[in-house]
Structure prediction request, 104 residues.
Amino acid sequence: MPIRPEERDRYPPDWKKIRKAILERARYQCEGTPDYPDCRAEQYCPHPVTGSRVVLTIAHLDHVPENCDPKNLRALCQRCHLNYDKHHHQRTRKSRRAMGDLFA
Prediction:
């Protein structure tokens, strides 16, 4: 997922180097998730299931951008990353809505 501008300060200055190391570790293939453990979609190729062009992203498994330990980072295709983050997105979307209600 692209880094939102308001989140950019949470990433280390050498994020591009870290990202590259994770992609190289993964051999530019999706490293899979518990729901899709065998996904090995390749960077810039059609996804074997969805057919969409794969752009690998780096997922923070604990959803904390400051935690850039390689064990906490995984190269994921769009399908795997969105699926892995779905519960986190549901929780944070609710809290962002609630914050909006406070200031409406």
The chain has a mean pLDDT of 89.
